[in-house]
Amino acid sequence: GMDSGFGSDFGTGGGGGGKLDPGLIMEQVKVQIAVANAQELLQRMTDKCFRKCIGKPGGALDNSEQKCIAMCMDRYMDSWNTVSRAYNSRLQRERANM
Amino acid sequence: RSRRGGTGRDRGDTGSAMDPPSAAGLGGADPQLQRFIEVETQKQRFQQLVHQMTELCWEKCMDKPGPKLDSRAETCFVNCVERFIDTSQFILNRLEQTQKSKSAFSESLSD
Question: Is the pTM of the predicted complex or chain greater than 0.80?
């Protein structure tokens, strides 16, 4: 467990005499979160683009299927960004109305 | 699969910043770590909702993926987000009302 000896200096590079550096932990957590989000995105994108682009599964991905998947990926990212912006705007509006 | 963080004091699935989740007990005695957890938890709820809405709205708004996101699809996505949040708030408000009027929940379901 963590003791109370951290004080309030972060990111000092771990010179704290063997104690855990909270700054480092926070950075590592942020990385983990980013990785998890990327995985989530990829998983859903794969699902959606498979549904849109692959009809009856053949022996390999043909050219049109590959083109479709590539376009689908870009459109999925566009959609994700649009949704993110729209949601953020809505949250700002809600906060402004409070 | 659970899509929500927080500890239950938040307003349902709007994932809004209105009620920050309680980080009491997490992060121990360190207030900066506690704050970090609060902030990251909130960011994650936002992200999760974006994932969820993108998935839902894709079904409603995207026909065949083209070379760009046309303006009609873009408008659809924006409307979709707004209506999703409206739906979420509507459900919460109505639930609150039906609880207040003390009618049984199952009664109000048959409305």
Answer: no
